[in-house]
Design goal:
Helix content is about 35%, strand content about 20%. The protein is α+β, with helices and mostly antiparallel strands.
Length: about 600
């Protein structure tokens, strides 16, 4: 089907059931960032393949909403004759509905939205109608089959705690709150709680399953039991029962009369409505696995350090090769990304990329979440900017690093060096910060923007996101973002530090390390303080640094960081690569 045929097919099905329009999010029934191919409904309908966005289809109009990361991508992938392009935050979908659909009946799939998200639409003067069947699924003739990869046991030597201990702790939490059970819709919570991983979605080692954990310590995991071999079943233990997904609704019915906890923001509306209809008493509270998962234990922290050492060695090998090869103009975005992937794949503990590498040369670097394809693949020219944002999934940790590189052989222009140095100054400001307990991510977002603001510049994305432990590279509940919920930072949390600058049509600059929240020693302090340990170890490109713009403290931080990179990564390298790193890490 062509793009206009797909849109027409959806409209025909909506009209058949008396609906004036439909909300189409990029989501599956677990409300996660990465979804299986069988749930890529937004991409099927619109052609847009970004990781965040939604569409609204009316009888005569249709709009697609994306944030600043995808402003350029959405224009490249969607047909302007079919889709109005709108900014997700500057013109929220609910406001667009208020202006264009007042009084209309708008359908939605209750498995793809949490109730608080629906409340914003209900306030827009429309009538929301839950649909029994998603009409896109009936129109999508070649829809892929749901995933069915095996469950994988995650050993305690990486997890740091036995699953039985976590289940007992969760049971105590439920009992203390007077709750009989919790429904876990987020597969990352089941993965953390039961020490399991999977292969159901790209880039994140999840097994897509619902779970019901009870105050007794027992857990029902709703996934095809045949996906677990004898070893994995033994790993799970007798207190974890594997049940087919088809039994999930009946299990919700069995919770009638009980006090059931759900996270309102992370649970599909269909589950909440089903529980109410069954007579369950709902306790609305945060997923009880979310905060313990975010605060990595000592074993997970050590695993993150080890993973970053090996990832740093792969990155340095790539950087040495790129520095020697790029000036000749023989590289493309794809060949560069493949070269880095090949370096990472040499590690026996490498399990795959943690997200699709963003390899943007020249103007492509200004597309914040650019994804290179054979059609868009661009030669990396001499004397231009190349932005490479990538990461790895390792059995002991998850990595995410961005370096912005000057290809040479000539010097970088002064304005470019000034802008890149301001981004670096913002990165250093956040990485070197010491702050009191109770401070949250949104409070710190401006720290990394100050050097850019002083020059009348800014960037249209958050400064950083939480990162999992061999789980999602984008993990809540913390983030350095004005739009984030103000969750106080705690010891053991891992976040990214990634300010940027984007000159549309010219280049992009972003500098990213992962940082670990730790207890700070502040003699005489009147309250506990925290600071950050930098985990990522790879040099910043000196060709894009203007030393005169750095303060003495910033120069000291950068020289100290590079000395640490040389000391810790150097022993992992061969002699030629070590010689390159020695030069790259020389003091300013």
């Amino acid at each position: 089907m062509t793009a206009d045929q797909r849109l027409a097919a959806l409209r025909t099905r909506l009209a058949a059931v008396g609906i004036d329009g439909m909300l189409v999010p990029r989501a599956d029934e677990h409300l996660g960032e990465y979804v299986p191919a069988s749930a890529e409904r937004l991409a099927w309908l619109t052609g847009f393949t970004g990781s965040a966005g939604m569409a609204i289809v009316l009888r005569e109009r249709a709009a697609i909403f994306t944030d600043g990361r995808y402003t350029l991508q959405v224009t490249q992938q969607t047909d302007p004759a079919l889709w109005e392009r709108r900014h997700l935050t500057e013109e929220p979908p609910a406001e667009w509905l208020r202006a264009n659909a007042a009084g209309l009946r708008i359908g939605f799939d209750p498995w793809l939205y949490a109730e608080p998200a629906l409340a914003r639409f209900e306030a827009a003067g429309i009538t929301l109608v839950p649909l029994e069947t998603n009409p896109i699924d009936t129109a999508w003739a070649d829809r892929p089959a749901p995933p069915g990869a095996p469950l994988i046991a995650h050993p305690t030597r990486f997890a740091g705690r036995e699953a039985a201990e976590k289940r007992a702790e969760l049971a105590a939490t439920l009992s203390a709150a007077g709750q009989d059970a919790v429904v876990l819709a987020d597969p990352a919570s089941s993965a953390w709680l039961l020490n399991i991983r999977g292969q159901d979605v790209p880039f994140t080692p999840l097994a897509l399953a619902f779970a019901i954990a009870k105050s007794s310590g027992a857990v029902d995991l709703f996934i095809d039991p045949d996906r677990a071999d004898a070893e994995t079943r033994a790993h799970l233990g007798n207190a974890v029962r594997l049940r087919p997904r088809g039994e999930f609704l009946a299990a919700l019915d069995a919770l009638g009369g009980q006090r059931v906890r759900i996270d309102p923001d992370a649970t599909p509306a269909a589950i909440a409505r089903h529980l109410r209809a069954a007579g369950a008493v709902l306790h609305l509270a945060e997923d009880p696995c979310r905060m313990p998962r975010a605060c990595k234990n000592a074993t997970e922290q050590a695993g993150a350090r080890n993973a970053h050492h090996r990832d740093g060695a792969a990155m340095v090998r790539f950087l040495a090769w790129f520095t020697a090869t790029a000036p000749g103009g023989a590289l493309t975005e794809i060949s560069a990304a493949e070269a880095l992937l090949a370096e990472r794949a040499k590690d026996p503990m490498f399990r795959g990329e943690s997200f699709p590498a963003i390899a943007g040369s020249g103007p492509h670097g200004a597309i914040v979440h650019y994804r290179v394809s054979p059609e868009s693949n661009r030669a990396i020219a001499p004397d231009e900017v190349f932005l490479l944002d990538s990461g790895g999934q390792y059995a002991d940790g998850t990595t995410d690093i961005t370096r912005t590189l000057w290809t040479g052989p000539g010097p970088a222009p002064a304005l470019l060096r000034a802008r890149a140095t301001r981004v670096l100054r913002g990165h250093i400001a956040l990485a070197s910060l010491c702050f009191p307990e109770g401070v949250a991510g949104p409070h710190l977002d401006a720290i990394a923007r100050r050097p850019l603001w002083d020059a009348g510049e800014d960037f249209d994305h958050g400064t950083g996101h939480g990162v999992g432990s061999y789980l999602s590279v984008h993990e809540g509940p913390v983030a350095f973002s004005r739009a984030a919920r103000p969750v106080p930072l705690r010891e053991g949390m891992i976040l990214s530090d990634e300010p940027g600058f984007y000159a549309v049509g010219e280049y992009g600059i972003r500098l990213e390390n992962l940082i670990l929240v730790r207890r700070a020693e502040r003699p005489g302090a009147n309250r506990p303080f925290l600071d950050f340990e930098t985990l990522t170890l790879a040099p910043f490109d000196r060709a894009l640094i203007e030393p005169a713009l750095l303060t003495p403290a910033e120069r000291c931080w950068l020289d100290g960081y590079h000395a640490r990179v040389l000391a810790e990564i150097g022993p992992l390298l061969d002699a030629p690569t070590l010689a390159w790193l020695d030069t790259a890490c020389a003091p300013l």
